Amino acid sequence: MFIIGFILLLAGGEYLVKAAVSLALKLKLSRIVIGMTVVSFATSVPELIVSITSALRGHPDLAMSNVIGSNIANIGLVLGFTALLIPIRVKRQTYRYNWPAMMLFSFLFYIFLINDERLSRIEGLILFVLLIVFTIFIIRQSYISGDAALDEFDEKLNRTRAWRVMLWLLIGGAALWLGSRLLVDGAVELARIFGVSERLIGISLVAVGTSIPELAASMISAFKQEKDISLGNLIGSNIFNIGSVIGVTALIKPINHFAGKLIAVDIYWMLFISFLIVPLSLLPPKNSISRWKGALFLMFYGIFIYIAFFNRQ
C-alpha cells in the first residue's frame, strides 16, 4: 500500500504541474499564483480528507496533528529537500503578500487554539472566509501589478486544449487522493503496531504521507525550472491547510479534546519554521533558498521529529 501510494502521488504531481502551467498560460496568470491556488488546493486535498474523516470518527488528535505536522513538513522537509537539490528563488510577491498571509493564518490558528483549546464552527468559518478573500485578492493583484504575463512558456502546453487540461487535473487529483489514502493507511497501520499515540502518528507518518503530493509537485516544478510554482505551492498549501482543511473540518464538526502537546509544543514549531522563510531568504545568497538554507530547514525538521519521538508522553 505504501509503495503503490507513493507511485500514485508522484504521477499525480506530474499531471498537476502540467495542468498548472497550461492554466497559467491560458489565463495569463503568473506561475506563482497558479501554484498558490490550483496546485496548492489539489495537494491539500489529502490533508482535507484525512482531517475530516478523523474528526468524524472521533479522532481529534489525528485531525489536528495532521495539519500542524503537514505544515511543518511542507517547509522543513519539502522546501528543505527541494532546495538542497535545486536552489529556490524568492520573488517580491512572496515578501509582500504570500509569506505575510501564511503567518497571519498561522497566528490566527494559534490564537484560536490557545483561547479555549478547541476549534468552533465560528472559528472554522472565519478561517474559510479569509481563505476565499485571500485567493480572490492574490489573483486580482496578479493582474493589477502587471505580473500576469509569463516571461517564458512552453508552446506545446500553450496549445493544449481545455478538455485535456481538465483531464490532467482530474487524473492528477484522483491519483493524489487515492495515493494519499493508500500511503497513509499503510503508514498508520505500521505505526500502530509499535503502539505510538495518534498525535505522534499524525505529526510524523500521516503528516509526511499527506505532504508527499507537495514534495512531488515541488520537485517536479523545480526540475522543470518552474520554481515560482515550487515555493508558491508550499506557502499556498500551508495557507490552504489552515483555511480549508481546518476551516472546513471545524465547520463540519468542531474539534475538541486533542492532545495538550499540540498546543504546548507542535504549534510553536509550526510558527517557528514558517517564520524562518523570509529571514533566511535575506541572507546571502539573497532572495533565494539556497542549498545550505535547505540543509538548515532539514536539520530543524529532524530535530522536531527527534524531540517528538523522544518525548512520547
Word description of this protein:
The protein is mostly helical. The chain has one domain: Up-down Bundle (A middle domain of Talin 1), CATH 1.20.1420.30. It has twelve helices and two strands, in the order αααβααααααααβα. The protein has helices at residues 2-27, 31-56, 60-85, 92-116, 121-144, 155-158, 162-193, 198-223, 227-252, 261-275, 277-281, 291-310, and strands at residues 88-89, 288-289. The protein has a two-stranded antiparallel sheet. Helix 1 (2-27) crosses helix 2, helix 2 runs antiparallel to helix 3 (60-85) and helix 7 (162-193) packs antiparallel against helix 8. The longest helix has 32 residues, at 162-193. The model is unreliable at 148-153 (pLDDT under 50).
Quick one: CATH superfamily? NCX, central ion-binding region
Q: At CATH's second level, what is the architecture?
A: Up-down Bundle
Indicate the low-confidence ranges by residue numbers.
148-153
Q: So how many helices?
A: 12
**Number of DSSP strands?**
2
Q: State the separation between the terminal residues, measured CA to CA.
A: 29 Å
Count of the domains: 1
Please estimate the helix content. Answer: over 70%
Oligomer: single chain
Strand residue content: under 5%
- CATH C-level category: Mainly Alpha
Structural Rg: 18 Å
Principal-axis shape equals globular
Strand-pairing-aware structural class: mainly alpha
Overall pLDDT metric: 82
**CATH topology tier name:** A middle domain of Talin 1
Main β sheet profile: 2 strands, antiparallel
Adjacency order of strands in the biggest sheet: 1-2
Element-level helix/strand string: HHHEHHHHHHHHEH
